Amino acid sequence: DIQMTQSPSSLSAFVGDRVTITCRASLSVNGYLNWYQHKPGEAPKLLIYAASSLQRGVPSRFSGSGSKTDFTLSISGLQPEDFATYFCQQSYRTPFTFGQGTKLEIK
Amino acid sequence: EVRLVESGGGLMRPGRSLRLSCEFSGFTFEDYPINWVRQTPGKGLEWIGFIRGPAYGDSTKYAPSLSGRVSISGDDSQTTAYLQINRLRIEDTGVYFCVRDGSGGSSSGPWFDPWGQGVRVIVSS
């Protein structure tokens, strides 16, 4: 299985800050990397697909980049509604695997 | 509107079988495979498997760690997918999500969109 490792596992920031979350794959996933936002009690939400494509309806303050094994999710100008847990996921090879999550909290 | 709603969770005894349902609307099973994903205390988010529509012979694929204990199927109306887990274990406790492969066959996919709200399963004696 392809192992996905996110860092940091938790992060505190102020409203208005820019934050970056990193996801590393144990082998190249060729850009088949997706990012999701998950709030307690809600369905997870797709933010970024194919490493850098913004899902329709997702604010442009979210962006993704990276290739092969190293990927980042950036959020610029944090809004109160952005405080949540973020997961990366590789869809290059089954079994599709997820990172352990990064919990973003308000400072 | 694309929608997926899971049902069938609850308290289950170890060793028993569980069948979850996923009623979906706003898209055709033919174009968008259905995946099941779970979130457990021990492993976090874990992909369980997917089913493709009749044009693909209702083909399925499962995570090797669960293969042999799980089965995903769809009904003839093509509006409901099912997940069956046999020989339940304590570590199967978690929230189970039904998820559409939102890529529609794109070469850049798959990606999971949207997700259902999830259904909680507790396995305990």
Topology:
The complex is a heterodimer of chains A (107) and B (125).
Chain A: E1 4-7, E2 10-13, E3 19-25, E4 33-38, E5 45-49, E6 53-54, E7 62-67, E8 70-75, E9 85-90, E10 97-98, E11 102-106
Parallel strand pairs in A: 2-11
Antiparallel strand pairs in A: 1-3, 3-8, 4-5, 4-9, 5-6, 7-8, 9-10, 9-11
Chain B: E1 3-7, E2 10-12, E3 18-25, E4 34-40, E5 44-51, E6 60-62, E7 70-74, E8 80-85, E9 94-101, E10 112-115, E11 119-123
Parallel strand pairs in B: 2-11
Antiparallel strand pairs in B: 1-3, 3-8, 4-5, 4-9, 5-6, 7-8, 9-10, 9-11
Describe this structure in words.
The complex is a heterodimer of chains A (107) and B (125). With 107 residues, chain A is mainly beta. Chain A has no helices and eleven strands. Chain A has strands at residues 4-7, 10-13, 19-25, 33-38, 45-49, 53-54, 62-67, 70-75, 85-90, 97-98, 102-106. In chain A, strands 2, 4, 5, 6, 9, 10 and 11 form a seven-stranded mixed sheet that branches. Chain A has a four-stranded antiparallel sheet with strand order 1-3-8-7, with no helix packed on it. Chain A is globular and about 35 Å long. The mean pLDDT of chain A is 97. Chain B has 125 residues and is mainly beta. In chain B, 0% of the residues lie in helices and 50% in strands. Chain B has no helices and eleven strands. In chain B, strands 2, 4, 5, 6, 9, 10 and 11 form a seven-stranded mixed sheet that branches. A four-stranded antiparallel sheet of chain B has the order 1-3-8-7, with no helix packed on it. At the A-B interface, strand 5 and strand 10 of A face strand 5 and strand 10 of B.
What are its keywords?
heterodimer, A: 107 residues, mainly beta, four-stranded antiparallel beta sheet, 0% helix, B: 125 residues
Mean pLDDT of chain A: 97
Q: Specify Rg of chain A, calculated over alpha carbons.
A: 13 Å
How much of the sequence lies in strands of chain B comes to: over 45%
Mean pLDDT of chain B: 93
Figure out the total of helices of chain B.
Answer: 0
Which blocks of ≥5 consecutive residues of chain A have pLDDT under 50?
A: none
| Counted beta strands of chain B | 11
Structural class of chain B: mainly beta
Strand content of chain A: over 45%
Structural class of chain A: mainly beta
Q: How much helical structure, as a percent, in the residues of chain A? A: under 10%
* Overall radius of gyration of chain B: 14 Å
Q: Segments of chain B where pLDDT lies below 50 for 5+ residues?
A: none
Number of helices of chain A: 0
Helix content of chain B: under 10%
| Distance separating the two termini of chain A | 36 Å
The beta-strand count of chain A equals 11
What's the N-to-C terminus distance of chain B? Answer: 40 Å
SSE pattern of chain B, N- to C-terminal: EEEEEEEEEEE
